[in-house]
Amino acid sequence: MNHQHESRPRVRVAVVFGGRNSEHAVSLMGAGSVLDAIDRSKYDVVPIGIAPDGRWVLASDDQRFAIEGGELPSVDDSGTALALPSGTGQLVTLDAGRIPGSLGEVDVVFPMLHGAYGEDGTIQGLLEMAGVRYVGSGVLASAVGMDKAYMKTLLAAAGLPVGPYVVVRDRDWRLDRDRVLKDVEDLGWPVFVKPSRAGSSQGISRAEDAVELERAIEHAREHDPKVLVEAAIEGREIECAVLESPGDEPPAASLPGEVLVNENHEFFDFSAKYIGSDMSLAVPADIPAAASEELRQMAVRAFEALGCEGLSRVDFFYTPDGRLIVNEINTMPGFTAMSVAPQLWAASGVSYPELVDRLIRLALDRPAGLR
């Protein structure tokens, strides 16, 4: 750990949440859990909200973080405006009509952000330029993990099994739609259509034929001009969380868990994840011991293939004939206390407050810059 931390009694942690994307509310829900769990006797906590228009503001613990009456939370942008100038590690206040002031140095940032402009390497790059340590994966792993098309390319290159898919790029869809539709039909029906660079199951649809396919692609393009179409895979959804270990120890894999979605949902969509109680998690997953061990090893291989740091969640399909197929890896998975990754670690003996603390300590012990 950097010796500069010893001059202050507590490490200063900035928890950053919100953001300029459709996962703004999901970010706030996770941040609320982190702020509740973080040990205030060990850490000086600075809550920072990123408003939907991209402005950074000094938030308070009174900010609404949960869904109330069906209304999604949003960053209260009435607080003091903030900036993080490159190379300083200092939070700067930007009150209108006043000379910029300093809130002092930040030891580590906990970016509780999902989706574009947060989970995709952009804020990681900003923090690298500012010289501030941060929780989670770096620029490259975050960018690749956010883009499902490139993610699958890297996973396949690492020898991990992935399902058949077609990438629908903006230019191809506009200029050569018939060829795109033919390529997708070759996958067989049904297919799942999703934005290539969105998360929390935003913009995902199931298509049974060409008419539904066009509608589904247009829906996904509302979130991202680059779309991924995947062949439907018959199998159970099994998930595994991977946590970076201190020192030179290899990453650790949690017990696998099976996502169980009730009959109101065709798949594990946004509503099932965050609204109501339409999903449950069975931990450990009821699969053979050999398959469980293989899945955990594959999860660590996926984590290392992308060069991940901190915490990730790897999602699998377990087919009726006993095969494991990697669906995707999430470099900043849902992080409320009841989200899948924290539940998997709780069942594996790491409580939510301990998980939060471990992620902060891992970030503090990591060298800044190239590693």
From TrEMBL:
Biological process, per Gene Ontology: cell wall organization; peptidoglycan biosynthetic process; regulation of cell shape
Q: Which GO terms describe its molecular function?
A: ATP binding; D-alanine-D-alanine ligase activity; metal ion binding
Please give the cofactor(s) recorded in the UniProt entry for this protein.
Mg(2+); Mn(2+)
Pathway listed: Cell wall biogenesis; peptidoglycan biosynthesis
Q: Which residues bind Mg(2+) 1?
A: 315, 328
Q: Which residues bind ATP?
A: 148, 192-194, 200-201, 230-237, 327-328
Query: Cellular component terms, GO, for this chain's entry?
Result: cytosol
Q: What EC number(s) are associated with this protein in UniProt? A: 6.3.2.4
Can you state which reaction this protein catalyses? 2 D-alanine + ATP = D-alanyl-D-alanine + ADP + phosphate + H(+)
The yes or no answer to whether the keyword ATP-binding is present is yes
In this protein, which residues make up the domain named ATP-grasp? Answer: 152-361
Q: Which Pfam families match?
A: Dala_Dala_lig_C, Dala_Dala_lig_N
Which residues catalyse the reaction?
23, 200, 339
Query: How, per the record, is the cofactor bound?
Result: Binds 2 magnesium or manganese ions per subunit.
Can the keyword Ion transport be found in this entry's annotation?
no
Could you say which enzyme class this protein belongs to? Answer: ligase
List, alphabetically, the Gene3D superfamilies matched.
3.40.50.20, ATP-grasp fold, A domain, ATP-grasp fold, B domain
Q: Member of which family?
A: Belongs to the D-alanine--D-alanine ligase family.
Physiological role? Cell wall formation.
Cross-referenced HAMAP family: Dala_Dala_lig
Name the PANTHER family on file: D-ALANINE--D-ALANINE LIGASE, D-ALANINE--D-ALANINE LIGASE A
Name the record gives this protein: D-alanine--D-alanine ligase
